[in-house]
Amino acid sequence: MRYPYPDVTIEVEDDKDILVEVTYPDAGTTGNTFINIPSGNNKPIENAGSVSIGSGKILKGHFAIIASNLVNVAPQIDKIRETITIAGVKVVQHENLKADDKTPSIKVKVIFQ
Amino acid sequence: MKTRLFILFCFFGSQVVTFGQADELEQIKAPSSPAAAVIGIQPTTVLSPKSYEALEASVLSNFFNGQGQLLIPNDFGLEFSPYWAMDHPMTIQQYLFPGFGESLWRNLSFSVASTQNYVLKDTVKSKALGFGIRTTIYITDNAVRKVIDSALETLNISQAAKSIIDTYIYSIDEKLIKTGNTAQFVDMLIDSLKKEKYMLVYFSNDRKLMEQELLKLGKQLKKELPVYSPGNEKIFLDSINNFVLRYCEVSKKLQILESYVTNRPGFKLDIAGAFSLDFPKNDFNFSITPQQSVWLTPSYRFRGNTSFIEILGVLRYNWYNMNFYQQYFKNKETYEHNFDYGISLNLLFKKISLHFEAVGQYSNTIIDKTTDPSGIVTTRSKTKSDFQYVGTFSYQINKKLILSYSFRKQFQPVLNVNGTLISVVGLNFGFGGPTKDNLTNF
């Protein structure tokens, strides 16, 4: 199922590296996140972790489209959860029941200014 | 053929009734709820609270009345895993391959069960509680680890491809709304994907293969996508999402990984213990422990071409309180110490399931103990050996119909004897019937 999140605008500082961080609060979650920056370098994140997508100066005035595909294989866990943070701002805090959807696709557009 | 089947079914009909009256044959496997097993019930209500707050609420609402007095609910079960009551962020590898101690702690669960029908003197019913604990230890060898790692990697690559495609769909869907042309949308998507270097990983870094496959994908998309029109944007995008999910085979690869997690190949040891607490006078000030039990169930599930084979062993110890049984079951022969040991073999093919198990039982009890003036203790004890076996053959005729035949000889139970040699043939129709996972329980 698709879970499109509302567009987010983030103010970035020129001299700072912008980090995208993916965290899974639950055991047994595995996924892949792709950050598509039409004006720059695209970056993948395998499972939880963080990646730099460039300096604020480069990103200012541009946008990134982020898509995450998740699953959870732990029988003890009944939810699928993920948090995506960019430059310290939580842009996605996702949660769905596995009974409703076992393969959620999360999407969000982030505009840098 | 139909007539023969009908005659066979009728012939064994009476045997089915006999089986229903006899005690259930205890299977070689650790009980999912040791507390329920030790008081001999299959709870009609089982609660599995996922947090300490939910546990507290479950205990208060089921075991206490409004005045704070203790209650014993009938046929009730409660199971709680302390580890899973809290969040445990960890990598997927840490989840899949825990160490020995971690495995012990993660799989630890406590269970409580209760009944108002714990039979005394064959007819008198009393209230009873069961308390249990169990855990499972997995020992994963390197070969199994490689198989699971490979299934995980395959799934992750599929998820990566899906995420890449998703971002491109999302980046051009606004243009689609402006143009309203499905074919143009697909062409734009395929052109973008061809230029994406991370997409190559999905096609084993073979650019030619990638271009060919993307071309096919484009053709399939044009064929299968609904015609876009203003107002049906959500339906259109959901259709693409479902199509890409199928194309990347995320669900299929998830199923493979899940099957390794739930039916993990390799060695597994289930450990469980339980004791019962009976209130013979239905007065909470007087209780007695009729039984204590310990189960050790090692098993080995093969992998690869022999993954249809599973071997289980069992070591089971039941301690019966002689004071209790001599008081409430004077005419029954009971032994204080009962050791069960056995082995079981499960073979699961596509439509055929074969299950065989054999369990020996050794029981003993001290019947007389004397001490002479010099302090030497002399004891007299009685012993008994018994043997049970069960063989089951099941054939899944179709999704709703399973033919099964089983033959079995069971132990002389402590209570209630209605014969121990049983032969059953049965046809199971549909609703809630056995699945491939529980065919051996049929």
Describe this structure in words.
The complex is a heterodimer of chains A (113) and B (442). Chain A is 4% helix and 59% strand. With 113 residues, chain A is mainly beta. Chain A is elongated and about 45 Å long. In chain A, 43% of the residues are buried. Chain B has 442 residues and is an alpha+beta fold. Chain B has helices at residues 2-11, 13-21, 34-38, 52-63, 92-96, 100-106, 142-179, 182-195, 207-224, 233-248, 250-262, 322-328; strands at residues 45-47, 76-80, 109-120, 124-139, 266-279, 291-301, 309-320, 337-348, 352-371, 377-398, 401-409, 421-429. In chain B, α7 (142-179) crosses α8 (182-195). Helices cover 35% and strands 33% of the residues of chain B. Chain B has a twelve-stranded mixed β-sheet with strand order 1-2-3-4-5-6-7-8-9-10-11-12. The A-B interface holds A 1-2, 4, 23-36, 38, 42, 44, 46-48, 65-71, 73-78, 102-103, 105, 107, 109 and B 50, 81, 84, 87-92, 94-96, 152, 155-156, 159-160, 162-164, 166-168, 170-171, 196, 198, 237-238, 241, 245, 250-251, 254, 257-258, 261-262.
Spans where pLDDT lies below 50 across 5 or more residues of chain A: none
Average of pLDDT of chain B: 82
N- to C-terminal separation of chain B? 24 Å
If you compute it from the alpha carbons, what radius of gyration of chain B comes out, rounded to the nearest whole angstrom?
Answer: 29 Å
Order of helices and strands of chain B: HHHEHEHHEEHHHHHEEEHEEEEE
What kind of assembly state do the chains in view correspond to? heterodimer
Mean pLDDT of chain A: 94
**Silhouette of chain A:** elongated
Number of helices of chain B: 12
Q: Which two chains touch over the largest interface? A: A-B, 41 and 38 residues
CATH topological fold name of chain A = Lipoxygenase-1
Number of strands of chain B: 12
Domains of chain A, number: 1
Quickly give the structural class of chain A. Answer: mainly beta
Radius of gyration of chain A: 14 Å
β-sheet strand percentage of chain A? over 45%
